[in-house]
Amino acid sequence: MSGERTKINFDLVYKTKVATTAHLDQISRKHSQPLSHFVAFSSITSGRGNKGQTNYGFANRCMENICEARRRDGLSGLAIQWGPISDVGMAAKLLGQNRTKIIGGAHAQSIDSCLSSLDVLLRIPQAVVASTVLPNKNGTSGDVKQENVTVQKVIGDILGIQNITSISDSATLSDLGLDSLMAADVKNVLQSKFNISLTNEQIKELKFNAVESLLKVTP
């Protein structure tokens, strides 16, 4: 064991995740009708690690191994490495009222954004995928009070647009290459940073040069 980890608290986390997933795997294999989806909720801690969470990261990786084995056997199997979640769990407690705080190098993702991402991730053929909201590509902290951080700039970073002044007035986010995962990121950022709530369809049809006007109609 390492640090403050003991065999008891290591096994508690390990068995909760791994034994449960393994049991469901074994039971589902006995059914004549294969499952359409077998989904395990993992964590980005599995791939990158986190101080004091050796047992948690190891348990998540073992769950991913089960999903990978199912895929090799021609069965459904998907493990999703989630980043911090803003609405529930440990991240929500750490965030408190500061929803723009960066935890472990990522912004917290809202439940609505997670559900939107899930619709996309279920169609990906890989056994292990990830969903997290990374900070802006320019390295800013995500604090909306920071100078020159606008709605356009934040969305432009998600879309990978270098020069936002060159965008046509009629161009929608879909026209600019917005895909489903980007839409989930935009939805989460608009909600967490600017208190703007839009559906995925509204985001797709949103004109890039009109996004700043959203702030004027937000209560």
TrEMBL record:
Protein name: Fatty acid synthase-like
Keyword tRNA processing applies: no
Biological process according to GO: fatty acid biosynthetic process
PANTHER family given in the database record: FATTY ACID SYNTHASE
A Pfam family that the UniProt record links to this protein: KR
Residues covered by the Carrier domain: 145-219
Organism: Diaphorina citri (Asian citrus psyllid)
Gene3D superfamilies: ACP-like, NAD(P)-binding Rossmann-like Domain
Example of a GO MF term: fatty acid synthase activity
InterPro entries assigned: ACP-like_sf, NAD(P)-bd_dom_sf, PKS_KR, PKS_NRPS_Biosynth_Enz, PP-bd_ACP
Entry keyword Oxidoreductase: yes
SUPFAM superfamilies linked to this entry: ACP-like, NAD(P)-binding Rossmann-fold domains
Transmembrane segments: none
Keyword terms, alphabetized: Fatty acid biosynthesis, Fatty acid metabolism, Lipid biosynthesis, Lipid metabolism, Multifunctional enzyme, NADP, Oxidoreductase, Phosphopantetheine
Superkingdom field: Eukaryota
